[in-house]
Design brief:
By secondary structure, the chain is of the alpha+beta class. It contains three helices and eight strands. Strand 5 (78-83) and strand 6 (89-93) form a beta hairpin.
Length: 153
């Protein structure tokens, strides 16, 4: 197993894999364990900044807002926010079953599937981004294939 983010008697968060790297943070797969539950989560941890608390709040707002308009998996649900050993703050999210990042999804697609995938993704993305901008005043500012989770349906 990988390194421990948190290792307390009643709560553990252990990194098991890295999903994606970004300019400001990285997404890891981790095992989250408390007295009541044990499950796999995504963890976003900072690279340059000391805290992702602001981003965790936005993640929660965006997830709840998108769910309210029919995009229940528009953003992974927030599980918890953690203070780490080094004083930084990260947050854990529930995984979206069967989802992979858009860049990985496109690598597995055939050339004949590519146009349809891109059009479908752009249509959904434009709808969500328009809603977030017009209704919540949120501007994503980090649009790239590794920041989007895709799930076949």
């Amino acid at each position: 197993m990988g390194h421990a983010y948190i290792n307390l008697p009643n709560k553990r968060l252990l990194c098991t894999d890295v999903i994606a790297h970004g300019q400001f943070g990285q997404i890891d797969v981790a095992l989250y364990q408390t007295d009541r539950e044990k499950k796999e989560v995504y963890v976003k941890k900072p690279i340059l900044t000391e805290s992702l608390l602001h981003e965790a709040c936005i993640q929660k707002l965006v997830g709840e807002s998108l769910a309210s308009i029919g995009f229940p998996l528009g953003a992974p649900p927030l599980v918890s926010v953690f203070s780490l050993f080094n004083g930084s703050v990260c947050f854990a999210m529930d995984p979206i079953p069967g989802a992979v990042t858009l860049d990985r999804f496109l690598q597995a697609a055939t050339i004949h599937e590519m146009a349809g995938i891109i059009i479908e993704c752009l249509l959904q993305l434009c709808g969500m981004l328009s809603y977030l901008h017009l209704q919540l005043g949120i501007n994503h500012r980090d649009l790239k294939p590794s920041n989007f989770l895709i799930r076949e349906h």
